[in-house]
């Protein structure tokens, strides 16, 4: 096909038949140049007929001509008319929640829809074309911004096309990554639930010029992608009208509220359970025998484990001093319990090893620990007591008969190693005595006196030996009493610390989160 201009500048199109394939290929390669040349050589009316329908419509609308369409003025002919913008919010993803800086990061589509009175056409004139995609920057756009924006305002929206319909309706939905400020309450961390508002509205136009409404009154979450840390539990979109102190005009806004709850599985497996088992391990310290020498070692090891564990936990916990997290309270209680276990263990070891000269167990400790608590915890005594009464005398008596002196002398040894004569200890007369009689027809008085002296010396030595033996037995008995007290104290401390561990875990990790969940459900 070849194109030749006629004398009156109208193109004459000749159909060339019978051309060879090579000649047709050369002509098809030259067709763009011929078409461009044709646009310059033909009149404007003819060139418009050769353009695509969309391009003809775009040229006729004059969107690129500032004299025909000025994007800086509102799209109404009557200045008293209000431009109504239907605003919709499509939530795509909750990207992050920065508790330290109190910033919520979300991906969303901001749907805008309004009517431009300066744009309209008849679809039959353009081959049934009823909508047109044009760059958004050539149109008038409502200056709707995020009031609680925590990012740079100069970033703007992604440059996308807007859909223009034949009745003047314009649909514009730019995808955005929003960083909004959100008041974060981490009191019940990691069982917390956050409610973050996103407030959208016109920055310069009041209600009389640009009115904003909520499309369908709900947030679109059809294409929502779930977050690994936060669970989306609720959402809402509402319209408000506010009169600011700087002017008497009313400024409408649309507020989107996103309610989300933290997923606790990560924190339960990596923080709560290890902390709980470290508490149980601290309690098991009191079941170790005191003679094993590993009680303090285990306590210090658990305490050091807490120190290392706190360094790991600190990275996962929100760094803020405005609220005290629930998990922080639990970790503080656990650290305090473990530290207190060390002090109690040292005290019990001191009871178990009273020293070389132990004091006797006081009567009230004997009644409470060796009496009531020992029977309560089924702690049986490891030995039988050899002495049934304090101050009972261990007695050794020797009686001597002297015919020349005409007297009988009996010597007694009490349990403290002192010698007692019969004349000074009348109350021992009825006790059985062992009597040694020293007399004979061939013994002289001097020999008898020497025998008496040797026997007195022997009795003094024997009394000292018996007294030392008895003193050693008393000390061993006192040490055994303190060991039994320490054994009972171990059982009492185990029960107390076990109850503290279970109670703190139940209240902090079960009761309070359940109460908070019911309170939120009631709201």
Give the C-alpha Rg: 51 Å
Mean pLDDT across every amino acid position: 77
Number of helical segments with 4 or more residues: 9
Number of strands: 17
Class inferred from helices and paired strands: alpha+beta
So what's the overall shape? rod-shaped
Q: Would you identify the regions where 5 or more consecutive residues have pLDDT less than 50?
A: 1-28, 383-440
Distance between the termini: 77 Å
Order of helices and strands: EEHHHHEEEEEEEEEEEHHHHEEEEH
As an assembly, this protein is single chain
Largest sheet: 7 strands, mixed
**Beta-sheet strand percentage?**
15-25%
State the helicity in percent bands.
Answer: 25-40%
Please give the structural blueprint.
Layout: E1 2-5, E2 11-14, H1 21-29, H2 31-41, H3 44-50, H4 53-61, E3 83-98, E4 103-115, E5 131-135, E6 144-146, E7 161-165, E8 169-172, E9 175-181, E10 193-202, E11 210-214, E12 230-242, E13 251-262, H5 265-283, H6 295-316, H7 326-352, H8 363-376, E14 397-402, E15 407-413, E16 419-421, E17 434-435, H9 445-522
Parallel strand pairs: 3-11, 14-17
Antiparallel strand pairs: 1-2, 3-4, 4-8, 4-9, 5-7, 6-10, 7-8, 10-13, 12-13, 14-15, 15-16
Helix pairs in contact: 5-6, 5-7, 5-9, 6-7, 7-9, 8-9
């Amino acid at each position: 096909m070849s194109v030749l201009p006629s004398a009156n500048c109208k193109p004459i199109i000749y159909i060339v038949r019978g051309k060879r394939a090579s000649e047709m290929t050369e002509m098809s390669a030259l067709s763009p140049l011929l078409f461009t040349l044709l646009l310059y050589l033909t009149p404007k009316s003819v060139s418009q007929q050769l353009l695509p329908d969309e391009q003809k419509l775009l040229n006729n609308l004059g969107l690129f001509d500032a004299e025909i369409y000025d994007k800086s003025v509102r799209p109404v002919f009557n200045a008293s008319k209000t431009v109504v913008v239907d605003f919709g919010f499509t939530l795509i993803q909750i990207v992050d929640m920065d508790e330290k800086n109190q910033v919520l990061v979300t991906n969303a589509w901001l749907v805008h829809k309004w009517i431009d009175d300066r744009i309209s056409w008849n679809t039959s004139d353009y081959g049934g074309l009823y909508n047109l995609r044009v760059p958004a920057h050539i149109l008038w756009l409502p200056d709707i911004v995020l009031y609680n924006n925590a990012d740079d305002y100069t970033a703007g929206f992604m440059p996308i096309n807007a859909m223009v319909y034949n009745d003047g309706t314009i649909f514009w939905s730019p995808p955005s990554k929003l960083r909004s400020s959100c008041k974060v309450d981490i009191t019940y961390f990691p069982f917390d639930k956050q409610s973050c508002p996103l407030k959208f509205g016109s920055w310069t136009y009041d209600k009389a010029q640009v009115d904003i409404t909520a499309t369908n009154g709900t947030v679109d979450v059809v294409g929502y992608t779930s977050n690994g840390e936060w669970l989306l539990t609720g959402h809402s979109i509402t319209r408000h009208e506010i009169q600011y102190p700087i002017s008497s005009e009313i400024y409408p806004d649309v507020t989107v509220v996103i309610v989300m709850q933290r997923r606790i599985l990560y924190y339960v497996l990596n923080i709560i359970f290890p902390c709980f088992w470290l508490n149980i391990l601290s309690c098991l310290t009191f079941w170790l025998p005191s003679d094993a020498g590993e009680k303090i070692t285990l306590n210090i090891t658990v305490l050091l484990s807490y120190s290392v564990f706190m360094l790991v936990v600190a990275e996962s916990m929100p760094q803020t001093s405005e609220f005290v997290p629930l998990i922080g309270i639990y970790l503080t209680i656990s650290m305090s319990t473990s530290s207190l276990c060390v002090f109690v263990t040292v005290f019990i070891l001191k009871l178990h090893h009273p020293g070389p000269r132990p004091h006797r167990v006081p009567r009230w400790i004997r009644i409470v620990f060796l009496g009531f608590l020992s029977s309560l915890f089924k702690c049986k005594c490891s030995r039988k007591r050899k002495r049934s009464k304090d101050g009972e005398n261990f007695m050794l008596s020797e009686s001597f008969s002297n015919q020349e002196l005409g007297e009988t002398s009996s010597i007694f040894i009490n349990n403290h190693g002192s010698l007692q004569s019969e004349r000074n200890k009348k109350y021992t007369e009825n006790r059985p005595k062992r009597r040694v009689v020293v007399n004979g027809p061939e013994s002289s008085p001097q020999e008898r006196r020497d025998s008496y002296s040797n026997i007195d010396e022997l009795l003094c030595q024997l009394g000292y030996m018996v007294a030392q033996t008895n003193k050693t037995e008393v000390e061993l008995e006192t040490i055994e009493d303190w060991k039994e007290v320490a054994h009972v104290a171990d059982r009492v401390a185990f029960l107390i610390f076990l109850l503290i561990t279970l109670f703190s875990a139940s209240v902090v990790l079960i009761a309070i989160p359940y109460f908070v969940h019911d309170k939120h459900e009631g709201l």
